[in-house]
Structures are given as C-alpha cells and as structure tokens.
Design a protein that fits this description.
By secondary structure, the protein is an alpha/beta fold. The chain has two domains: about 5-220 and about 245-280, Rossmann fold (3-Layer(aba) Sandwich); about 310-454, no CATH class. It has 15 helices and eight strands. It is elongated and about 120 Å long. It starts with a helix and ends with a helix.
C-alpha cells in the first residue's frame, strides 16, 4: 500500500472523499490534518471525565500539532536485542548519541536525536529498546508505542528473520506506518551470501516492505586485518578500523523524506487522531450508558414509590405516565438526541403499544392492584403497594431500555421496527429478578417514609 492509498483511507475515516488522480499537495495534507487535530482538541461534546481519562493522549495531539507546525519527521529504529540498532543510529547520525554495549538491553527508554534536514523536514532518529529480551515486557511495549507514533520505522535485523521478528514486523504493519528493513552486520557475509539473504528477506516481508526498501548496511564493521612485511621479510599484523557503511539506508530514508515526508507526518498525526477519536467515542458511549442506567434506575424507583403511595385508583397510573415522559426527555439529553415533549409522548405511546401487545396480563394486574388500593382506602397499601410498585418499576425499566435503543440508533428503531426492538428488550431482561429487586427497594423506601412520619 503506497502513501496515497493510506492518505485516502485516512481521509475517508475522517469524513472526506478519496483523492482525485492528482493528489493534494503535501502542505494541503498538513493543513487538513492540523485542522482535524484542532477540532478534536476543541470538541466541546467530549465530557471532562473522558478528557481526564485520556490526558496523555490529548497531550500527544498537542505535541503532534507542534510537530506538524515545525516540520519534523520522526524515524524509529526498531528490532530485537543486539542487532545493532543503537550503533546503526549513531552511524546514520555520524556521532555517538545512542548508548551501545555488549550487554542485552543497553537501550532502556526512548531516545530521540535530530539527524538532518531534507526538503524542509527536520529528520529525527528515535532509538527504541529491543524486543524479545528476557523479562523485558515493559521495554517491548515501549518500543511498539514509540514505533506507533513515528512517521517511518526502520526495522533492523542481522540475519534471516526469526518467527518473533516476523510477528513483530506484522504487528508494526498494522500501525500503517511505512517500513524499511535494514540488514545490519552485512560485512559478516560474502557478496553472494549477502545477496541471497536479501532475496530471502524480501520474500519474507513481501506485502509489508517494498523490495527496494530492504537494504544492507554495516554500522560497526569488523576491523580489517592488515599484514605488513618489512625489508627483512618479517610480517606484522595490525587491525584497521573500517568506516560504517549506511549509504544505502541513508539514501533510502532521504528519498522517502524528499518524496513524501510531509504527507507521512500528516498521515501519522491523522491516524493517531483517528484512533483517539475511536477511543473517545468508546469512552463517551460507556459514560453515557452508565449515566443512562443510573437515570433509568432513579426513575424506576421514583415511579415505583409514587405508584405505591398513591391511594387513588388510576391517578397513580397518570402520575407514572408523567414520569415516563420525564425519563425519556432526560435520556434524550444523555445521548445527545434531545426530544420535545410531543416527541417523547409519541415515543412512549409506541413503546407502550408494543408492550401492551406483548404483556397485556401485566397491565391488567397493574389496574386491578390500583383499584384494590382505592377500595381499601389506602389501608392495604403495604399489602398491594409493593407488588404494584414493582410492576411500575419493571414497566419503567422496559420503557427506558426501549427509549435508549431508539436514541442510540439516532432516533430510529432499525430494520426490525419498534415491535422487534421492544420484543428483544423484553426477552433480554430477567423479569423475576427485576421485580424482586424493585419490591425490596420500594418497601425499604416506604418503611423509611413510615418511620419518618411516626
């Protein structure tokens, strides 16, 4: 998949149309993504609780905005322990900036260094901890996190790829960042061995790394043995250090930066924003569901108690109906789908019509219980109130859940219509357990009121 394919995918995800034959300019990519990032930061519909849970992510959005404004391209150097990632980074930089050592896991945290400027882009190399180190789960996760927020990933190997390396490369491919594969320590192989190994690596990474982006390099080539013979025929051997050979990798990175560096930076920022938008949506939905459940339960209790306490036949049902309207109006606000009182009344009428068809017997018991309270002039409240209040609770639970389904689908019942939606909700709820819970809560509230009045 080339960069324009990625950009089309990003634009579709953010609500735009695919690019035409002539792709937008790199500056247009940056401007579009910056606008999307600012919109995400300024979105007033995101609750503060959700922003608090995702504080680090929103801080990253601000950092990405600054990065786009200053024209930076971040390149992560990634791979398993001891393949020479840090040495390769130093060779590219032309200076010793990343720690190297003979022990596994020399690199323990992210380290970024400015490298060079290409086509107005400031290239930064990021050294990452090695993957698959024993007891190095934290470093491995950090390495993946760093790679996921970089614009370009250089995956370093020092021979034929292991299964764990192939798995890691596949995982990185899912981040939709362009990948380069660097065969480090290439000086250990003969020319023929090196070419055969490059062919195998290209076969392994087909579909993830372009063939031309699989290159050989030597960050710390072995010293060359030099034999000198003096005038008397005596031989002396010395070791001459060899310069690093990273020309092919350097050229590869520069070519990508010149061709599409700004677009890559915009793409990375946009993908991060898209992922964050998804996480925000999930958190907001969860927060709304939790709030909706609390709202429904509060109205269930209020309606159950109101019905149980009202000694006048049928009047309790009218009071219950007004609470149902208030419940639906409240749920509309929770889900960002405000309703008028007329809309709420129509919605409740639709729900109750379906419930009556499904559960006519329950409403009959409800009416009988209401009449009994009137006949007993309220003396049998504690005999009948718990049962009737529990039924009112259950009815409110059904109305609330049905209204919630309608609002979640954008004020729509979906393909199955109201009948199917209400039937599904009735089938999904355990009526007996709800009635037991309702009776217990209502009786506890009634006893509390009785004690307070005595």
């Amino acid at each position: 998949m080339n960069v324009n394919d990625w950009w089309d995918k990003l634009r579709i995800r953010l609500g735009g149309a695919p690019t035409a034959a002539a792709s937008p300019s790199a500056d247009a990519h940056v401007a579009q993504t910056s606008e999307a990032l600012r919109a995400l930061l300024d979105d007033k519909s995101i609750p503060e609780s959700v922003r608090g849970e995702l504080t680090e992510d929103f801080a990253q959005v601000e950092a990405l905005l600054d990065k786009l404004a200053t024209g930076e391209l971040h390149i992560a150097v990634f791979g398993r322990v001891s393949v020479g990632k840090s040495a390769l980074g130093n060779a590219l930089l032309g200076r010793t900036a990343f720690a190297t050592g003979v022990l596994h896991g020399t690199t323990r945290a992210r380290n970024a260094q400015r490298w060079q400027e290409v086509a107005g882009q400031g290239l930064h190399l990021i050294d990452t901890p090695g993957i698959n180190e024993l007891s190095g789960e934290e470093r491995e996760r950090l390495a993946f996190d760093v790679a996921a927020i970089s614009d370009l990933v250089v995956f370093v190997v020092d021979g034929d790829m292991t299964q764990s390396e192939l798995a890691a490369l596949s995982t990185l491919g899912k981040t939709q960042r362009p990948l380069l594969l660097a065969l480090n320590k290439a000086d250990r192989y003969t020319a023929d061995e090196r070419e055969r190994l490059l062919v195998r690596l290209r076969e392994h990474t087909a579909g993830l790394v372009r063939a031309e982006d699989v290159v050989a390099c030597a960050a710390l080539p072995a010293d060359r043995l030099v034999v000198q013979v003096d005038a008397n025929g005596n031989e002396t051997q010395t070791r001459a250090p060899q310069p690093a050979d990273v020309r092919a990798l350097d050229a590869c990175v520069r070519a990508i930066a010149e061709r599409e560096g700004k677009t890559l930076a915009a793409l990375n920022a946009g993908l991060f924003a898209g992922d964050l938008s998804d996480r925000v949506a999930v958190r907001v939905a969860a927060a709304r569901r939790d709030l909706a459940q609390r709202v429904i339960r509060n109205y269930c209790l209020a309606k159950g108690v109101a019905v149980a306490l009202n000694p006048i036949p049928v009047a309790d049902l009218l009071a219950a109906a007004s609470l149902d309207v208030a419940l639906v109006l409240h749920l509309g606000k929770v889900y960002g789908q405000p309703l008028t009182r007329a809309e709420a009344g129509t919605l409740i009428a639709t729900i109750c019509a379906q419930l009556a068809a499904l559960m006519g017997a329950i409403w009959g018991v409800h009416l009988v219980s209401s009449a009994l309270k009137g006949v007993s002039a309220g003396l049998s409240t504690f005999v009948t109130a718990g049962a009737q209040g529990a039924l009112a609770w259950y009815a409110t639970e059904l109305v609330g859940r049905a209204a919630e389904r309608y609002l979640l689908q954008g004020k729509s019942w979906g393909e199955g219509g109201a009948k199917r939606a209400v039937a599904d909700i009735v089938a999904s709820l355990d009526r007996d357990s709800i009635l037991r819970e309702a009776r217990s809560a209502i009786m506890a509230r009634l006893r509390g009121k009785t004690s307070a009045n005595s």
